[in-house]
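Consider the tokenized backbone below.
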């Protein structure tokens, strides 16, 4: 339990929320009978504690953290599943991830205890899942938990029949409750097995049911439908604090990216107002780590102040992209600077020498949540001196009694600099520059504290998002180190995550690839490669994106439309599923549609655009009903409605004329524009075959030309950057 008196427990981390439907009536029945004494696969806690359990050879940091528990954990796989079948044992499945605060709490309070281990080892096959490495298993059983309890989260605790059907689930369960639950479940399994299996079958049927998304189209994905979705956002908007109304605030960048692009398409002033309010609130609040850079996962309050202190690669990559595109669209260098700061943080602290980016920073530091990040006024003053300390503490919102625990505060930047400067008798410009002047000092002082743990797992999909962010960072700023990092990410994924048949591994740890890639891995990596091609012009980046989209069509396609989340050879308990909804990251299906739009525009092949339009039409009714829950689909629809320009900039790399033309188009980060950089001589044979739209486009020796085309019709090439930039604005507000 959190010790912070003012903090509401985070959603999906409830201390004790057990299932209240279906099986509850069975569990509370006064069941009689002795527990089954299953001993064939039993190992006593003292033996497991001494020798380690079956997680000891796993690459996952999360699984390694549980390798010395007295619980005889198995990783998900055939060995554990066969044991459950052969010994007719129930399965206890626990899923989480290394940076999850409540996962650590349940380990220490429950799984490290011998009495719990004795009950689990004797009567259950215990399986531990790293949800980030095995998202298909986690998603299947998370849906069961949500059906049974109305909520979900991590650690996820699910009980399954020997044939893997779920019948009971929850999240965090305290020690005594958990022991009681184990006894009751075993009694029910012994005495009322038929009823338990019947209910497990009902839950399984509901898991496999899909949204009514494949019915004949009831409407069109047109501007009227999109405008209706946007109008409904106003009813959910938090007018005071920005973001969507709620007790806690998650950034969910895909939603704001759609709203930004809707504004760029229509000029809608109300959308712009909500967007800017939210961007400013997130950038100025405690969701952002102002001292170290980057963003935390969410805040536990409605005003973006006190975060849950995890830092996830997927959040930071998408938020960098959002701030870059918003800054370019709204002509706000301060928003572009936020994106730069995020990428600097990622490059410095979350990306390794091997090239790619790591998964997450833990919420905890030395067993305490948040202590690495928070400050007292005395600590600020000790770091920067008596002269600047009082003003700086006010500028950073670090005041007694504090907004956190024990008089400490999460740093924010919301204050009126001019009024504070006047109060402290300082020049306003000097006050405005004070934080930047002392930031490195504060970071150095903070580095002496116990840092949060870093999970160096490298996840394909999340690195696809980072690849896009670094490529767009280069376009927004011209900083070549961002482009270099993007190239390094792609090189690593090709070297380590590419498997022999051209497919993808899900993740890697210390260069050891694990798991089979799921749809989001293929889609988000392909999308990242298409962004990378637009800053390198390299045929291999475009060709690999094509190959991944071809593999999606061959291995993931769903006859009724859209795509399965797992391939036709993937390990999917209970059967293959489809996910239509965008959450903290775009779902794989909407990312495929978006990638098809970009690929079709870049190459001139009509088939990808036709496929994207068809998939959007199939989901029109579902999009209209669910709104922002399908923000990634909605965003792809805005782009496909167009106009969708393809721009070719031909000229020698490094030539100032080429650079000026390229930046006039690329730095707009316009959703209705794709760009292909070419050498002055034009495309080589390989690139021309991949992208017929490039054929015949070149520049005179020593010069540079921009070709702006729309559906195969090209305007006269221009060497004027201003003219090139203006020519892509037709049909778009910004």
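A designed sequence for it:
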């Amino acid at each position: 339990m959190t010790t912070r008196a003012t903090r509401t427990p985070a959603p999906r981390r409830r201390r004790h929320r057990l299932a209240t439907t279906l099986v509850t009536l069975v569990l509370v029945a006064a069941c009689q009978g002795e527990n089954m004494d299953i001993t064939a696969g039993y190992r006593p806690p003292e033996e497991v504690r001494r020798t380690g359990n079956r997680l000891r050879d796993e690459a996952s940091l999360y699984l390694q953290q549980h390798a010395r528990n007295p619980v005889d954990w198995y990783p998900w796989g055939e060995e554990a599943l066969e044991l459950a079948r052969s010994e007719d044992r129930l399965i206890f499945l626990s899923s989480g991830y290394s940076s999850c605060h409540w996962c650590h709490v349940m380990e220490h309070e429950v799984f490290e205890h011998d009495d719990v281990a004795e009950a689990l080892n004797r009567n259950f096959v215990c399986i531990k899942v790293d949800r980030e490495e095995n998202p298909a298993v986690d998603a299947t059983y998370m849906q069961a938990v949500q059906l049974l309890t109305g909520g979900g989260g991590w650690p996820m605790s699910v009980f399954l029949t020997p044939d893997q059907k779920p019948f009971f689930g929850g999240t965090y369960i305290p020690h005594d409750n958990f022991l009681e639950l184990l006894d009751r479940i075993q009694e029910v399994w012994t005495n009322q097995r038929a009823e338990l299996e019947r209910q497990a079958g009902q839950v399984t049927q509901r898991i496999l049911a899909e949204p009514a998304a494949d019915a004949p189209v009831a409407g069109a994905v047109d501007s009227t439908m999109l405008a209706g979705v946007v109008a409904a956002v106003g009813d959910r908007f938090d007018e005071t604090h920005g973001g969507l109304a709620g007790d806690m605030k998650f950034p969910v960048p895909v939603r704001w990216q759609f709203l930004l692009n809707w504004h760029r398409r229509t000029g809608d002033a109300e959308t712009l107002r909500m967007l800017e309010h939210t961007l400013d609130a997130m950038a100025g609040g405690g969701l952002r780590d102002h001292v170290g850079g980057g963003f935390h996962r969410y805040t536990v309050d409605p005003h973006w102040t006190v975060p849950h202190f995890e830092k996830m690669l997927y959040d930071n990559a998408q938020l960098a992209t959002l701030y870059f595109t918003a800054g370019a669209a709204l002509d706000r260098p301060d928003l572009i600077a936020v994106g730069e700061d995020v990428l600097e943080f990622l490059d410095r602290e979350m990306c390794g020498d091997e090239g790619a980016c790591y998964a997450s920073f833990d919420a905890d530091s030395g067993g305490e949540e948040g202590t690495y990040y928070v400050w007292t006024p005395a600590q600020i003053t000790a770091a920067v001196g008596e002269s600047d300390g009082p003003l700086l503490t006010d500028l950073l919102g670090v005041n007694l009694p504090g907004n956190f625990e024990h008089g400490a505060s999460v740093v924010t930047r919301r204050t009126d600099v001019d009024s504070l400067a006047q109060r402290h008798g300082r020049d306003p410009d000097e006050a405005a520059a004070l934080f930047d002047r002392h930031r490195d000092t504060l970071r150095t002082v903070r580095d002496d504290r116990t840092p949060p743990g870093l999970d160096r797992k490298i996840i394909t999909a999340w690195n696809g998002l980072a690849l896009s962010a670094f490529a767009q960072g280069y376009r927004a700023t011209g900083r070549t180190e961002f482009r270099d990092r993007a190239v390094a990410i792609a090189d690593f994924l090709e070297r380590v995550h590419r498997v022999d048949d051209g497919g993808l591994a899900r993740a890697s740890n210390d260069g050891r690839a694990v798991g089979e890639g799921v749809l989001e891995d293929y889609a988000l990596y392909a999308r990242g490669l298409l962004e990378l091609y637009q800053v390198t012009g390299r045929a291999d980046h475009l060709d690999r994106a094509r190959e991944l989209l071809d593999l999606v069509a061959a291995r993931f396609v769903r006859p009724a439309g859209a795509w399965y989340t797992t391939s036709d050879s993937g390990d999917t308990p209970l059967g293959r599923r489809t996910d239509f909804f965008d959450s903290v990251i775009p779902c794989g299906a909407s990312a495929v549609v978006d990638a098809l739009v970009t690929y079709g525009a870049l190459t001139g092949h009509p088939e990808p655009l036709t496929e994207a339009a068809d998939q959007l039409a199939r989901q029109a009714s579902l999009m209209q009903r669910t709104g922002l829950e399908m923000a990634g689909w909605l965003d792809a629809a805005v782009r496909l409605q167009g106009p969708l320009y393809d721009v070719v900039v031909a000229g020698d790399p490094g030539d100032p004329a080429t650079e000026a033309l390229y930046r006039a188009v690329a730095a707009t980060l316009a959703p209705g524009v794709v760009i292909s950089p070419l050498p002055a001589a034009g495309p080589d044979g390989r690139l021309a075959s991949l992208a017929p739209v490039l054929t015949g486009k070149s520049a005179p020796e020593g010069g540079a030309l921009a070709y702006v085309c729309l559906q195969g019709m090209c305007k006269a090439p221009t060497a004027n950057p201003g003219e090139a930039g203006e020519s892509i604005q037709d049909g778009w507000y910004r």
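The chain is about 50% helix and 10% strand.
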